[in-house]
Amino acid sequence: MSRPTDPAVEDASRVAGRLQEIVRGHRLSPSQRRIVRYLLERPREAVFLTGNDIAEAVGISQPSVTRFAFALGFSGFPEFRDHLRAALRDGRQAEPPGLNPVQAMVDSEVRNLELLRDGLADTGRLAEVGAALAASRPLPVVGLRVSAPLAHLFGYLAAKAHPDVRVVDAPGSVLADRLSRAADAGATWVLAFGLPRHPRELLEGLVWARGAGLRVALVTDQSVGALVEQADAVLVAPVSSHFAFDSQAAPTVLCAALVHSMIGALPVREQASIEHFEDGAARRRLFLSD
């Protein structure tokens, strides 16, 4: 049963999405991240605020707001705000003719995949994270609640070549214990999936991981926020909120791309284990297509 569409909620979602698109890939200072967080918490108001409004609310100077706009490639804060307002005009354009409501929801996921594609034009960051994960022995992979299936997907695929992948989907003391044991065993990185709704338990786990000496690679849907502040490397993929529950097409593709990048960074002998598995699977006729 589809949910009724609230135009105000749709407008807020469009503005938040445009803001996340603007800041994606930019390295922001702590005060600039506070600005983004403030705007994401009130996207319906964001298109009407002045630079002075934001400076007063966030507790920074008005020139700092101007520098924030400069850092994102705009000539000043008014141009940045106009770019956010454009999201409202774009969103109110008619959907392609002939799409039923379910097709329109799928179309929103197509746009998310296009955003992910455009964000991966430079694969340098993806390659860096893949190489770091490949070198971590063991490699703990964390996903709680709705993110657990994606963590297990990454773990299942990565274990075809990586010799020691440890998926953790339990919060609290279990998560802390397993991260500590991984660090004691030689792990240098932990990969975490943090998709909405973002569990407080994951934040606590990332804080614990850093305290144990692990560096954090985070796959998430936002480039700012409490989880991002605990991460050493962040890979962003948008999710769609147009279904009864969030849809994760772009994060799933990013997960597969990260596995691909990690395997490419492994020693040749470990990459060869994939071929060994395929040979064995064919001999044992594990799959119907063999």
UniProtKB/TrEMBL annotation:
InterPro entries: Homeodomain-like_sf, HTH_RpiR, RpiR-like, SIS_dom_sf, WH-like_DNA-bd_sf. Residues 15-91 form the HTH rpiR-type domain. PANTHER family: GLUCOKINASE, RPIR-FAMILY TRANSCRIPTIONAL REGULATOR. This is MurR/RpiR family transcriptional regulator.
